[in-house]
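User: Reviewer 2 asked us to show a designed sequence for the structure in our supplementary figure. I'm pasting the structure tokens here. Could you produce the per-position amino acids so we can include them in the response letter?
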């Protein structure tokens, strides 16, 4: 066989010898971390409005006029409602409760959670709330919205007792979760 015909075959064989180590070196390189988070669930306006609707129904069933705030997971306002007759001053506390629940990833309320009285803590919480720009409160009534293990937002309610506020917030959240599961929400 003439050498001229063997040259293309020799070139291909030689090229394949170099290609295998290069491919293996590229495979051994560790994966770079992603630059964005994908697959997150976010609460949107329609979800926030469904929470408000159910929470208002629960408040009415308790005979209460309340302020209701729904925020996203970062504590940014999505929807707000002040029911007829609700105290205007409770509007800001409802928002603060929602922001606290979203950003601290837990229900708002007295600290420490076991309810042990602490005079210094009781005196410092209002100062910390003022210093936080309204992102901290020791008032009950802020409840995070947890869906598929993720905190997607929070609800803050003001106008009743702390326990009533939390009950109304939880009723709104439960209605959303039932809608997401495809079930018909329970009556208040």
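Assistant: Here is a per-position design you can include in the supplement:
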């Amino acid at each position: 066989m003439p050498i001229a015909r063997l040259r293309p075959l020799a070139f291909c064989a030689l090229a394949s010898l170099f290609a295998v180590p290069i491919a293996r070196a590229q495979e051994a390189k560790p994966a770079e971390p992603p630059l964005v988070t994908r697959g997150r669930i976010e609460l949107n306006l329609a979800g926030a409005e469904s929470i408000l609707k159910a929470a208002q129904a629960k408040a009415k069933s308790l005979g209460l006029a309340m302020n209701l705030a729904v925020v996203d997971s970062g504590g940014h306002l999505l929807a707000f409602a002040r029911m007829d007759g609700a105290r205007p001053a409770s509007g800001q506390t409802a928002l603060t409760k929602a922001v606290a629940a979203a950003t601290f990833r837990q229900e708002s309320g007295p600290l420490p959670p076991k309810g042990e009285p602490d005079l210094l803590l009781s005196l410092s919480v209002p100062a910390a709330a003022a210093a936080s720009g309204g992102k901290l409160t020791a008032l009950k009534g802020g409840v995070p919205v947890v869906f598929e293990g993720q905190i997607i937002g929070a609800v803050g309610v003001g106008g009743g007792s702390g326990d009533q506020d939390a009950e109304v917030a939880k009723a709104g959240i439960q209605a959303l979760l039932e809608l997401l599961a495809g079930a018909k929400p329970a009556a208040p």
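For the response letter, you might also mention the following. The first strand starts at residue 67 and ends at 72. The chain has one domain: 45-181.
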